[in-house]
Specification:
A 3-stranded antiparallel beta sheet has the order 1-3-2, with no helix packed on it. A 3-stranded mixed beta sheet has the order 4-5-6, with no helix packed on it. The longest helix is centred in the C-terminal third of the chain and has 20 residues. The termini are far apart. 11% of the residues lie in helices and 28% in strands. The protein contains 4 helices and 25 strands. It has a domain of 102 residues. With 351 residues, it is of the alpha+beta class.
């Protein structure tokens, strides 16, 4: 489970806008035009465009150019090459009459032009819902959310979002909670974009009852998801608990054993997370991408710590990012964007 999670994160972080040429330095991408070396959590990556831009091939002389990804209403190039920008919102196109991004027929602009949806307003988890404008349905953002009455604090496990709410809210299923996270994909993602989603409640996160903790190996203790067996530890994903396995010890063969995630360990093939040609017959507990080797232990990368890419910074928060080789906490940005999202929903409801 841990190996699959790490692999998916690595694939997502190096997605689509790359040329799939491996690199260690920007200079390794020089003959590809504008492309630079984009890294995820290791000292190697692939040649691609930075977040907020898309790669377009301009021929043998110019090679690749990185052009701006545009929102609905912004200027764009109808030829698809994008000197004025390319439309990045889902279900959008560049209108040849206005040279501006527009939504396809049957869709409307939402989220400040970052998305084209087939309903307006498009309601995600924690958003206010009402049968008067959306039939009581809620959009699925990574986990189906349903419109729950605000009058009942435990209405169909809606208390996670609608507890004592004055208005009905879209609530994530039990065992999940609303999160506002940044887009980990480098393709078709607006710079700094955040979006609401339903994500599993993890070890040491807020809970009310045992059922809020999805794993059968966890219970709700003192309003935090904890290992049911107090001698057990969480794994790296914080979604399961088991008997702790230490650093550089074989892993994956015994079902109730987990690499000690609280110590930054994850079960990996080969020599570690950054092994690009791992020996698949070897699985040992190694330091995960959010930690560095420190003798016989792993040291968590904190704010200001050295990083190659965003993945190295996720121990700080899910929205922490790597800027100029140092981790920065994106929490304040998330708070601001959450306030902006709430304001946008409030204004939309009054219109």
């Amino acid at each position: 489970m841990e190996q699959i999670l790490i692999a998916l994160l690595a694939v997502c972080a190096l997605n689509a806008v790359s040329s799939h040429r491996l690199c260690k330095f920007d200079s390794d991408c020089d003959n590809l035009g504008d492309l630079i070396c984009m890294k995820s959590g290791c000292d190697h990556g692939v040649c691609g465009c930075s977040r907020g831009k898309a790669a377009r091939f301009y021929g043998s002389e110019k090679n690749f150019l990185c052009v701006d990804i545009k929102k609905i209403g912004e200027s764009c190039s109808t030829d698809g090459l994008g000197p004025l920008g390319v439309c990045g919102a889902s279900n959008s196109y560049c209108n040849s009459e206005t040279n501006r991004c527009d939504c396809n027929s049957g869709y409307v602009s939402v989220w400040g032009g970052e998305r084209c949806a087939n309903s307006n307003p498009e309601v995600g988890p924690s958003g206010t819902c009402s049968s008067s404008f959306d039939g009581g349905s809620c959009n699925n953002f990574g986990g189906s959310s349903t419109c729950q009455s605000g009058s009942s604090p435990y209405s169909s496990y809606g208390y996670g979002n609608g507890f004592l709410s004055m208005y009905p809210s879209c609530s994530c299923p039990q065992g999940y909670r609303t999160n506002l996270r940044n887009d980990v994909s480098l393709s078709l993602g607006f710079h700094g974009k955040k979006y609401p989603t339903c994500e599993p409640i993890l070890h040491d996160e807020l809970c009310i009852v045992d059922a809020d903790c999805l794993s059968p190996t966890m219970v709700c203790r003192n309003n935090k998801c904890a290992c049911d067996n107090t001698t057990h530890v969480p794994d790296y994903s914080k979604m399961n608990c088991g008997v702790a396995v230490g650093k550089d010890i074989d892993c994956g063969a015994v079902s109730d054993e987990v690499c000690d995630g609280s110590s930054g360990l994850v079960c990996l093939h080969g020599t570690g997370f950054c092994d690009i040609n791992p020996n698949m017959t070897i699985s040992k507990c190694r330091c995960g991408p959010t930690h560095t080797e420190s003798g016989s232990s792993c040291t968590e990368i904190g704010t200001g710590g050295t990083c190659y890419g965003d993945m190295n910074c996720k121990a700080i928060s899910k929205n922490a990012i790597c800027v100029d080789g140092a981790c920065q906490d994106g929490a304040m940005t998330v708070v601001f964007n959450m306030a902006l999202l709430c304001l946008t929903l409030a204004v939309t409801l009054q219109m």
